[in-house]
Design goal:
Layout lengths: L1 H9 L1 H35 L2 H50 L2 H7 L1 H25 L2 H16 L1 H8 L1 H39 L1 H6 L3 H53 L5 H42 L22 E8 L10 E8 L4 E6 L5 H6 L9 E6 L2 E2 L5 H7 E4 L8 E2 H5 L8 H11 L2 H4 L9 E2 L8 H13 L5 E5 L7 H14 L4 E5 L11 E6 L2 E6 L1 H7 L1 H12 L1
Parallel strand pairs: 3-10, 3-11, 6-9, 9-10
Antiparallel strand pairs: 1-2, 1-4, 4-5, 7-8, 11-12
Helix pairs in contact: 1-2, 1-3, 2-3, 2-6, 2-11, 3-5, 5-8, 5-11, 6-7, 6-11, 8-10, 8-11, 10-11, 15-17, 19-20
Length: about 575
């Protein structure tokens, strides 16, 4: 409940007035049948028109008050539950923004989407139902039972005999339904993962003509969700017929007993009419309470899933930062006996005993075979992951002693996957610096080699980019991502195979511009092509998670066998 307290306090009047107005409506529910019985037994039986009109007026007034209570109760219930859901959704989203890559991998993208949308909606629906029925139904139940005993204790006792049976059936249904809701939500995660993967990679699917294959895969996941949903919801379906059976049996019993009393003059017709209404109210209240509990069961499953997000242990935080206000000033980097593994239970390490010092302003190339640990190495600098052993120093300070904000402001990374967002080119560039003006953008784009194709568009920087940059080529996306990183004016610039989609001439111009215009920036370039790093100040050669050699191109060509193998294999191509 702690995660909901703040929202409840902010909207406390909704959580107070909503139930109060529903209580007003509930009181009217058991007053109306009593007035109606009086009209039949006292007014209609004696032909007293004045009595009928007087009590009819009372009924209209009660109905009007009930209408106002019902409308206002529903309004405050909807308002309170909506604010609560919005607050929980914001907290969950804010928590996800703090997640490291490891945290996100632990949940999966589809599951996070389901939790922040569908699961929060389940909680919202339950809170709304709770505000409208948590007091209304019990009060209507108690009031109807009390009025029933007032009218006829014998008939009321017959009705009360049905209540334990119905309560037992409801309890059994709830016990069976609860675990099924959890399974249903888990399957919804899998469905969303499938949708996310398919839509994101739609162009690949079409290029390989795999539409039918993907449709079959989706159908299988969708069918399992359908089965899980039916399996869970059919327990709720049982509630209605069981309640109807109980109501019908109780009604028959009442009519049977009351009919004999009416025949001998022991009961009037109006009383019987009111009693049947109270009977319906009693069983309807029980049914509504059962629905609240069933919704609560489903909401409890959703609440557990939301709680997992909100209480997830963040493996990257500023809590232990010794210098949270310190800025990256020079861009000096040092790896001291660094080892790292993605899966902590595995013995095999992705990086092993890394020792490396990079001076401020140096241009360092990093090469190696696929899976040698190049991307993992540079990911440790802006703390996308934390080391398992050793430490990474930036300007002589352990990266864990910086705040994540200041560290990442000082170290811009262009990763292998070039991600752009829906919007204009200008809006995408402003991700690097929201205060950047057009002149500054043109400077960054000129260095990144993006200015030539931007000016070829009719609307230039106002050109709309589709989601993910789908209407741009791979090389254009890469160059925009480099320009976006440059606008941060970082002290450390990491380019992870960021020019693989551009031609060699453009690649050379970008490297020349980086060396010329970013003299004070430490530059790390991961490349598959030796030609992209041949002119680097130093080249780091990696193999199987280790640094096997460091030196200039001509030095490595004379002594480093792995580097020679890469060079000659590319030369043959």
């Amino acid at each position: 409940m702690e995660k909901y307290q703040e929202s409840i306090k902010e909207n406390i009047w909704c959580f107070i007035l909503g139930p109060l107005f529903m209580i007003v409506e509930a009181c009217g529910e058991f007053i109306l049948p009593y007035l109606n019985a009086n009209i039949i037994d006292q007014g209609a039986a004696k032909g007293d028109v004045g009595y009928i009109l007087e009590n009819g007026l009372y009924m209209l007034l009660v109905a009007a008050v009930m209408l106002a209570g019902g409308v206002l109760g529903a309004y405050f219930g909807i308002r309170g539950s909506s604010h609560l859901a919005a607050d929980v959704r914001e907290k969950a989203f804010a928590q996800i923004q703090k997640f490291s890559f490891a945290n996100i991998d632990a949940f999966s993208t589809g599951s996070l989407i389901t939790r922040i949308t569908n699961d929060v909606t389940q909680i919202q629906n339950f809170v709304q139902t709770l505000l409208r029925g948590c007091f209304r139904s019990p009060i209507m139940l108690v009031g109807a039972v009390a009025m029933s005993f007032t009218l006829s204790p014998k008939l009321a006792a017959a009705v009360c005999a049905v209540i334990p049976f119905l309560a037992l059936v409801i309890a059994l249904i709830i016990c069976r339904a609860s675990p099924r809701y959890t399974q249903m939500q888990a399957q919804l995660d899998r469905l969303n993962n499938r949708i996310d993967e398919t839509i994101t990679n739609e162009r690949v699917i079409k290029s390989f003509v795999r539409e039918e294959f993907e449709k079959d895969r989706f159908s299988k996941v969708n069918d399992v969700l359908m089965e899980k949903s039916i399996n869970a919801l059919k327990m709720m379906i049982l509630l209605q017929p069981v309640s109807a059976l109980a109501i019908n049996v109780a009604t028959l019993s009442v009519v049977w007993i009351a009919g004999r009393q009416i025949m001998i003059g022991g009961m009037e017709i109006g009383t019987l009419t009111a009693f049947i209404t109270y009977l319906s109210q009693i069983l309807t209240s029980l049914n509504f309470l059962a629905n609240i509990i069933l919704q609560g069961t489903r909401a409890a499953a959703s609440n557990r899933r939301i709680t997992e997000i909100l209480e997830a242990k963040l493996d990257l935080t500023d809590d232990q930062a010794a210098f949270p206000e310190k800025l990256v000033e020079h861009g000096e980097i040092e790896f001291c006996n660094v080892s790292f593994r993605y899966f902590k239970h595995n013995e095999e390490r992705e990086l092993k005993d890394i020792q490396l010092h990079i001076s401020p302003g140096e241009l360092v190339g990093i090469v190696g075979s696929t899976g040698s640990g190049k991307t993992t190495l540079v990911s440790l600098i802006p703390r996308l992951y934390d080391v398992d052993e050793g430490k990474v120093l930036v300007d002589g300070v352990d990266v864990r002693d910086y705040s994540l904000y200041h560290l990442r402001e000082g170290a811009a990374a262009v990763l292998q996957k070039n991600t752009l967002f829906s919007g204009t080119i200008e809006e995408n560039l402003q991700w690097g610096n929201e205060e950047a003006d057009r002149e500054e953008m043109e400077w960054a784009c000129r260095i990144a080699g993006a200015d030539e194709f931007i000016h070829s568009f009719p609307e230039e920087y106002n050109t709309e980019i589709e989601q993910g940059g789908a209407n741009l080529s791979g090389g254009q996306r890469q160059r925009l991502c480099i320009a976006r990183a440059l606008l941060k004016h970082p002290k450390i610039l990491i380019l992870d195979d960021s020019t693989s989609a551009v031609d060699t001439a453009t690649d050379a111009r970008i490297r020349q511009a980086l060396r010329r215009d970013l003299r004070g920036v430490t530059k790390l370039i991961i490349a598959q092509r030796i030609s992209s790093v041949m002119d680097a100040d130093r080249i780091v050669v990696m193999d199987a998670g280790r640094i096997v050699d460091v030196g200039k191109h001509h030095e490595l060509m004379g002594r480093c066998v792995p580097y020679q193998e890469i060079y000659y294999s590319q030369k043959e191509e």
